[in-house]
Each structure stands twice: as structure tokens, then as C-alpha cells.
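Researcher: If only I could read C-alpha cells as easily as an amino acid sequence. Walk me, if you will, through where the backbone shape changes along the chain. I have put the entry right below:
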Amino acid sequence: MCSQLRTTGGKSGHSGLICCERGRVQIRALLNRFFTVQGINALLSSVSEQAAGMASGVAIDDEVIAYYNLIKVRRQGEDERERFKLVIMRLSEDLKSIIVDHDNCLKVKDVANTGDVFKTVISKLPSKECRYALYDCTYETKESVKEDLVFIINAPDDASLKSKMVCASSKVDLRKKLPGVKFEWQINDPADRDVSNLVEKLGGKGTVKSLEGKRV
């Protein structure tokens, strides 16, 4: 409206400009009266946090944190066989929370006699549904044998668009609940599932000599 008033000739245009400017002054006065600089900054911060929460809107089940703590623990002897090798997490049916996918988690004893540990692990990630996973990966470098947790985002191209959007928007919040995870590996298409892609995440062929007992 102000731009129109500026183009109007005569006294009416001049009066309109004065009215518009007075309105701005009054608004500034109201803001200065009710909000300090610190108050405005606090308000903006609160709004940003609420917007971030709304962007995801997905709760993280307490059991996810419990399983994360379990997979971190190193054990000895027979107890080592009971340690988790792979923890799979999925979206609930209503897409409102991240929960543990009990049917597809693996313990060390589950992969002890498999011919290819990596293939067993990767087979637990569906090709048409989104999943998160924590994989306790054993690999050998030129210096030593290492065990590191790898955070996997499995968001296949064939998964539903809505689930992929929720999966992507929830990743940051989930990672915050899993501190200390060193590596992240995202899988979108069948080619991403190849062991060479994980090897690159771990440092590349120049650094990694073998993964799960197999040369790379």
C-alpha cells in the first residue's frame, strides 16, 4: 500500500506517506516496549527449536538407546558371543517413532559360522524399506585389527517417498542419541551395498587390508 501512496500526487499522497511512517514508528515502539534484545533472541531460538522438532516429529524409543549401549560393550569368552554384532532400527507403522527391529538384529554368535559375515549383515537390510542400523565392524589396517561402530542409513530408491522423507529428517536427532559413532554409511541403490563402499568409508583400500576376515 505504501508504494502506491508514494506514486500518488498531491496532498493525499503526502498524507499517506506520513501515515505509513507513523505506523512503522508505532510498531517499533511496541517492540521496544515489550521485548528486549535478549528477549527477541530467546524467542527466535525457541521458535527455531520448535520448527526443528516439527520437521522431524519422530520420537526415539528408549530401547534404541539401550541397544546402542549394549552393542558398545566389549565382552570376554563365551559372553562375547552374546554381544550384538548388528542392531537394526526401523520406523513404526505410523511413522511416528524409531524402534528396534528385533527380528533382524544379529549377535556375534549368529555370524560365527557364516561363510561371509558382511553378506549376512547386509542381507538384514531390506531393499524396499528404510532402516537405520548400528554395525560393529571388524577390519584390519596396516597397523592393527580394529572394531568400530558404523551407523547405516538404508533408504532404498524403491522405498515409499514418505518413509524416505521421515528417515532423512530424523537422522540428525537419532545421531545425537548415539554419540561416539565414528563412521556413517548411506545405502540408496543396490550398488551402494557393495563391500567396496564400506571400505572407502573406513579409509580406503590403501588403509584397509581385510574386512570381517576377508581380504578387500
